[in-house]
Sequence to fold (660 residues):
Amino acid sequence: MTLANASLPQFPMRVVVRRTGLNASLLRAWERRYGAVEPGRSEGGQRLYSEADIQKLVLLKELVDEGHNISQVAGREMGQLRLLLRQNGRHSARRTHEGATPSTGEVDGGAAAQEDVATRFLEVCVDAAREMDTEVLESQLNRAAMALNPSTLVDRVLVPFLNRVGLLWAEGELGPASEHVASAVIRRFLDWLLGTLSPEGNAPVALVGTPAGHRHEFGALLASVVIAGEGWRVVSLGPDLPASEIARAAARKNAGLVALSALYPREDPHLPGELRGLRRLLQAPVPIVVGGPAAAPFADLLRADGIDFLADLAELRERAREELPHSKAF
Amino acid sequence: MTLANASLPQFPMRVVVRRTGLNASLLRAWERRYGAVEPGRSEGGQRLYSEADIQKLVLLKELVDEGHNISQVAGREMGQLRLLLRQNGRHSARRTHEGATPSTGEVDGGAAAQEDVATRFLEVCVDAAREMDTEVLESQLNRAAMALNPSTLVDRVLVPFLNRVGLLWAEGELGPASEHVASAVIRRFLDWLLGTLSPEGNAPVALVGTPAGHRHEFGALLASVVIAGEGWRVVSLGPDLPASEIARAAARKNAGLVALSALYPREDPHLPGELRGLRRLLQAPVPIVVGGPAAAPFADLLRADGIDFLADLAELRERAREELPHSKAF
DNA sequence: CAATCATGTGCAAAGAATGTACAGGGAGTG
DNA sequence: CACTCCCTGTACATTCTTTGCACATGATTG
Fold:
């Protein structure tokens, strides 16, 4: 899902063998017996694998090496495979997951199916929030995490869900209690997701938080998840921090990226000054990015000061990937 | 802990063997003879364990290592198992294969020792917070949770730690960033602890939150942990809730206890009115308890209205135990 | 003390799961 | 054309699991 043309069939067998470490017979066996991938064919009938195929095969190999049955994992989607891998990888019994449908379930339905699944999750989550049913909400979120890949999860479920909850609250359809309860569940879930997506070793550090005066932290949490998903080790500073503090933390943590989220006081007049101050305090050329509606009006102003405004999480995702010092393959 | 999809059968035997340290024969014996777990099956009939199964097996192994009879514990639910483990105090014999310690290996290996350990943890945690070292902080908290029983953990580590951090912050020794980072870790930890201590089945529900105007939520979180530890299913409403909302939630959840924490605006003049309102709105004779310095001045006033002020978490613990409608034994 | 439980472990035969090899025939390419 | 790579289909070998039963050891009980 990285490259735009990830699904273009183009790699012949030998490339796949080299890149996955699986031998040719085995690749054919996995395809025939478990439908692990479905490579295209050349005119003459030879297999042509896509980048996505290769990625999936790599994940499958890792899972099999960890002890999973190929028959059990071959049919699953990328998102599930990644989560499984992470959970199992930290073989701690700390986190769990839960599933509804047995393995025989859906084959790679493609992006359209994912969308569909995503909106269904969204609806159920909203209902659960309305009913203040934390357990259903939590289990739905988890199920969504299993069924979707991380970016779809964030873009199609979490963000819309938070918006909907905010809306319903503003309209008085949702009492503050429901809203709080839902928030708590979401926050815990995001914390968990952050932990799950965080890279293991010593990845470069990204600082995430909200500027002084901004106390809404969900934007920052989502940003953390996105950034962690791209391979950064995220240090979550929390909300409402003065520039000096952020700078201090950046120095101490030797941060390679600072991301801030400004949601609520909409046209906060202090915001540009605050950010400029931060820019000045960060001696090293650490990139600073800001997102959120409160920052939008100042986009140009900020850019002039070397602070980039990002319109949405997709931009953030891309930026996080670009800034990653050590852009490894796959 | 909770997150949640623990019931998807997917792990083959060998993974379970590796992760639990139990051998295959024994797993089958426990299943056959005591119904310890009921793994799903693959099409070919091979066992597929869920994450929940694995967790249960891990707990069973620990209990057996501590001297419990497998036949006595195999059939119990997760919540009971956790409780049992905690009761046995620090499961110091964590890694030992031999069931060396007989069942009599009694609890308090000396309260004094626990105290000692607790203060050591406290010191390390404070240092970690000062250094903004989330990883050390987190791991120390986890270790403390393992080493101490829940009440010691809360009374001798968590509460003093929060106090210390607050103090250092007030004195300017700790920057807001450090404070926030520490808070985030603590909150996550408390969330986890809450999940761990929560009983499984359908225990009676306790509502926990803070009254309108009170936005500091750690008191409520600690209260949640304490109450959950006594066997309630806690619904955490979050901070800053008007009486009407709390009442609505109580009705909806059929709460058997409402606990509120009021920390900050110290002598909040609205507090008694707010609570009286709540008392009025709760038609059923649901007990309401309040804690925290902000409520202390009104203790007598409130008591006259049928709302009990509790001076500390120990009192809360006792009260929670008393109020528990004595349901099932174990 | 003897009989009985409780519980961990060992074994054999049958079946599953899965990696690999081989044969005969095209495909791709210079 | 020659040479290598790849395709399909089939067969095999190996390693895991499963079931059922037996056994050893230690604790409990009559």
